[in-house]
Amino acid sequence: MDKNIKPVDEDRKPSQDLEKGSEHQKYSYEDLLKIIEKLRAEDGCPWDRAQTHESLKTCLLEEAYETVEAINLKDDENLKEELGDVLLQVVMHAQIASEEGRFDIDDVVDGVAQKMIRRHPHIFGTAQAASPEAVADSWEEIKKQEKQESSVYESLCRIPKALPANMRARKVLKKAAAGGYNFTEEGPVREQVCQAFKTLETAVSSGNQEQIDESFGWLIFDLINLSRFLDVNVENSLTNVIEKFINRLGSVENPEKSQGLSPSGLSPQLFKALWDL
Predict the structure, then answer these.
(1) Is the pLDDT of residue 192 over 70?
(2) Alpha-helical segments (H) within the chain
(3) Which of 50, 63, 122, 191 is the most exposed place for a label (fewest CB within 10 A)?
């Protein structure tokens, strides 16, 4: 084991008997660590023992999205459960790394605690930051120093490729703008969107699928750039429109179903109602 990896803390005792059927008031953080350790032990659960960082990637993403859904619904009971599922993923990944002698959960906690102190010099140091915007600017500057980024290009390359494309595009555009590589007014951005659409139409007319794909990508990219100037959250905006489309389909479909009509049998007026702005 790496000499920098701390051995399992023998003093970290569960607050109660973890065996099936034991009575308890509340399980603790230490109990959770012991439970995961037991599940991953040689005589533990076959499924849990088979998991790796790679196999759990989808689980981590799904739990994060389900947590966001609970927040959107303002469902405290569900939010409590989903936060627990996210915590489970963190502990599982830390346990896997610990078994391989790389790091453990204490290193994870220590690392994020150090980061919070380091990136809040206005709280734990002598710096000043009187607004959320000032704090965000300070955070980015400290992060840039930590990563030893000497150019905007290096900063953009560090944005994770695993992010959903619209989120990654927004981050790329924000960092590029901070480095001076972006439009400064809304008007030219709207003109760029119109030009991107014309380019797409030209590509469609040519029938070249490669050009169509690239032109479509630029159109979406330009629209996301425009969203920054209009102060629009792309994810929320698209989600709201999706819900409206679903509701419109429901209002159009139900009366028609009673008449035994399929979508192809809808009147042009009803079909158009699904898409009208």
Answers:
(1) yes
(2) 29-39, 46-50, 57-72, 76-99, 105-118, 121-124, 132-146, 152-157, 165-178, 186-206, 209-230, 234-257, 268-273
(3) 50
